[in-house]
Amino acid sequence: MTTIKQDSHVYRLLTFLSYVGEYPLCSLQLFGSKEVWRKLIHKHSQRQEYRIPGHADKITCRLLLITGKGRCNVTNDCDVREFLNYVRHNPRFLYSALYAFSPASAMELFESLGVPLKTERGRRVFPQSDRAADVLAALRSYAADAKFVHGSAKELLIEDGRCVGVRASDGKNHRAAHVLVTTGGTSYPATGSDGSGYKLARQAGHTIVPPQPSLCSLVSPDPACRQMMGLSLRNVTLTLLKDGKPLFTEQGEALFTHFGISGPLVLSASTYIDDVQLHRYIAEFDLKPALDEKTLYDRLTRDFAALGGHSAQGALEKLLPNSMRPVAVKKWGVDPATRAAQITREQKMTLVHLCKHWQVPISELGDLQHAVITAGGVDTKEVDPKTMQSKLCPGLYFAGEVLDVDAYTGGYNLQIAFCTAQAFANNL
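-> structure tokens emitted (428 positions)
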């Protein structure tokens, strides 16, 4: 077991991520230099138990199977009508809640709590400090007057068709006039999102739309992904093709893994896939989005002239990362022994096309355990959109990811959690 010191980077990371249910890939940097965290890979690739000194709490998780950016994208600075365009499932359900507590309201709240904010690309809103721990501290301060009971709810207490409390796993009954279920989905069960909220909802007669991963990695049958495992692509453009037609295009970062592809771009693209078994999906990368095909061809011509004595693979040293070159040569179809000076115009054109249209076939979505959020959940037709109260069981309410509402990446999902919870609070 690894002991984590209080106020350390890892402690702050784990406490906050356990709070919001997100695990950022770039958080590896919090361990120190690249050389330092690389040495931790073998040890922390397995599920481990982490103990916080001075507390009885223990956290069990895989530190390296993490996604997102880790700075707490608290919301998206757009108006409500535009926001709803980025909600994948049941956007109309959120209409009242979002107008009552808009992204602007969320930003005002955090500013009032002493967390200065900034808006970045795609109108994503972050704390100016880039410290998720600051958001956690603000939320804890906001809830300072609340009474917390630690434990898990085993079942609802329902009397005469009304929810009047919960029975904890230790057998104690906790009675309340209002019971709000905010247990999340089934993504990252190590954080506590184990689907228990669905069990409680079913007890009250609710329908559960089957959970599925959203904002997740993508699985590919292409063995080249495994060959390039660990390679991070920056400033590339990803286009998701469905039966040859583009669904999504965005520039950013992606990562090759042992099972396929991941990274911020891939997570965003994954939300556009609903029927992977019925259609042909391809992730197509433009490795050089800043260069058109003619400019890239001219660059290759200069590179090959300067490296005329190098092999075809060696001639790519200025063009592609090291781990990508042998894969590129194979896809290119050129004899590896060919010298750069011998490469023909047609072969250079083929290489240009490969760099501008590097394709990765997609066979399935990544699993729920490592998805950022869960799509599906409590059927919104059975919940009052103004108050979040159950239409089947008075006194019972739902908010956040446990509902069948999810959105694309960019701060939208946290905003959904905020506004649905506020809808509940406004109507007490």
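The longest helix spans residues 412-426.
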